[in-house]
Amino acid sequence: MTDLAPAVARVTDRIIERSKDSRARYLDLVAREADRHSDRSFLSCSNLAHGFAAAGEDKSAIATGSANNLAIVTAYNDMLSAHQPYGRYPEQMKLWAREVGATAQVAGGVPAMCDGVTQGFDGMELSLFSRDTIAMSTGIAMSHAMFDGMALLGICDKIVPGLMIGALRFGHLPAVFVPSGPMPSGISNKEKQKTRQLYAEGKATREDLLASESASYHSAGTCTFYGTANSNQMMMEMMGLHMPGAAFVPPNTPLRQALTRAAVHRLAGMGRKSEDYRPMAQVVNEKAIVNACVGLLATGGSTNHAIHLPAMARAAGVILDWDDLSELSAAVPLITRVYPNGSGDVNHFHAAGGMAWVVRELLDAGLAHEDVLTVSPGGMRDYAQEPVLMDEALAWTSAPAKSGDDTMLRPVSEPFQPDGGMRLVSGNLGRATFKTSAVDKERWTIEAPCRVFETQEAVAQAFKNGELDKDVVVVVRFQGPRANGMPELHKLTPPLGVLQDRGHKVALVTDGRMSGASGKVPAAIHVTPEALGGGPLSLLRDGDVVRLSAEDGTLETTADLSARQPAPAPAAEMGMGRELFAMFRMSAGGAEQGGSAMLEVAGL
Predict the structure, then answer these.
(1) Is residue 496 predicted with pLDDT exceeding 60?
(2) Among the four residues 79, 101, 253, 554, which has the most C-beta atoms within 10 Å?
């Protein structure tokens, strides 16, 4: 086992020390739950009969407690391309459970919204808090206390973090995440990006744009760019919660089916009645959280996880902050470039060596913890292998010795850049995240007068009017969790990219989110404290000079803010169900703490 890199060891030790009390409280809760709900025998006959009334041939096994009963918590719907393949999973998983003497039931469903559909429109304001809703829905599914393990079916942006947060509150049970894989590659990402910019400039029609987008997002499976959904899958591998190599195997293939079958068999083998009991609370610990952070940085993953990782960690009693991410970023080299950080998508990444390559490189360099418990019996080293079918049987082989494409995947010894893709910037405008991996280094520092906006639509209109055709820092405020649910502002990328291509110095500063697919424009996002409630962004005025620098980690203005009054916040909007989430907005914590209302109210 390779010695751990000093920075990784230092950050891990700091997180362990900081989390000592909260982690102990969490583990105490899990131990109490394991004692109180050790099996279904504590349920009354009436309770139990309700639980297996419709279980058909599995009734006897569930009634007598003679087999591990697995909960399936599914995010299936057939509007999301990534989740459409889940439709038939439950009936298949029940058959595979019986193969090893177990049973399975669909414990519940959780909502799954698509940011790609709601992007730039009213529904996006429900997006972040859908994560809390998913976590609570997971809790409801598991509250029947009928189960000995959890199979968690989810992939996309808020769905995996929500399932994780909810499942961790039942951490006395083992858990496996079951993905379904990415759709086949469509048109080239460069071609898609070009059409988007042409449309932003009025040089392409809506029909042209729709044809381009339809050629990109075209079938069942996860979107193929390396955004939040695919970063989720990477992190589940790095935390040891998948079957090894399951992340990027295409849907509806024999190998994908074999991996799902293996996940069911493995989950049945980790239950409380087995000799290899692996409760989720022991798999998801401080070291696993650090491994997820390292994977995110080494692969240039989604900035959304600067919010999701602290929230998931809190659910396990672990306290993670942006200083931890920033210090790890300084020590972890960027070894992959997947669109929008490169030209190829996750299918090309997987073919070039994929997660098996990444895990091996990080372990061999001492950048990830090898001494962790995983759902795979051999531990983290198992994830340095890739799954294959040999004579129709599932097997694993070592990662390739060399990268299949060194424009996409490189060894730690020859990285794309010496540090990870995410940096903390801070100053008199607050603390924020800057994703460097997709931005050319000559644009890491921007200093220019600002234009202040309160909606994406206002930015788009100013762009169309030619008001932004200059060096400018675009500030979009009142986009934080408490203001309007912290929507992604992905629609800003094409017009700002056009301004940058015209030779202007351009940057974005916002207390909102940018998509995991955000690209080449320098941006300080998730600014905290947010503008609502008097955060510094509420004090900015048009023309104030703002300096954003990933090189020295600054986010500041030269203007004197001390005598100014905060700008009034826009009135809360109604419609598209936004009013139903008012209680979440009122209670939400800051972005650095995960932007969750549920975790704040629960005192986690």
Answers:
(1) yes
(2) 554
**Neighbouring-strand partners of residue 166:** none
Q: Is 450 helix (H, G, I), strand (E, B) or coil?
A: strand
User: Is 114 annotated as ligand-binding?
Assistant: no
The predicted structure's pLDDT at residue 519? 67
Nearest by Cα to 122 from 476, 484, 459, 464: 484
- Determine if the peptide bond prior to 529 is cis (ω within 30°): yes
Written in H, E and C, the secondary structure of 161-213 is HHHHHHHHCCCCCCEEECCCCECCCCCCHHHHHHHHHHHHCCCCCHHHHHHHH
**Burial environment of residue 122 by CB neighbours within 10 A (0 to 12, 13 to 18, 19 or more):** middle
Q: What are phi and psi of 334, to 5 degrees?
A: -85, 115
Contact in structure between 150 and 171 (CB atoms under 8 Å): no
Q: Which fold has domain 422-570?
A: Glucose Oxidase; domain 1 (3.50.30)
| Parallel/antiparallel/unpaired status of strands 69-74 and 149-153 | parallel
Residue for token digits 């970063």? Answer: 231
**Rounded CA separation 61/11 (Å):** 47
Q: Helix H segments across 305-453?
A: 305-315, 322-331, 346-352, 354-364
Q: How far is CA 530 from the centre of its chain?
A: 21
Token code pair at residue 45? 């006959």
Look at residue 378 and tell me whether its pLDDT is greater than 90. yes
In the chain, the N- to C-terminal Cα span, in Å, equals 34
Pairwise CA distance, residues 250 & 246, whole Å: 9
Supply φ then ψ for residue 337, to 5 degrees: -135, 105
Separation of alpha carbons 68 and 430, rounded Å: 50
45 annotated to bind ligand: no
Where do the domains of the chain lie?
6-184+219-398, 188-217, 422-570
Q: Go through the chain and tell me how many residues it has.
A: 604
User: pLDDT tens digit string along 133-191?
Assistant: 999 999 999 999 999 999 999 999 999 999 999 999 999 999 999 999 999 887 776 78
- pTM value surpassing 0.70: yes
Cα–Cα distances in angstroms (integers) from residue 603 to residues 22, 185, 359, in the given order: 10, 43, 34
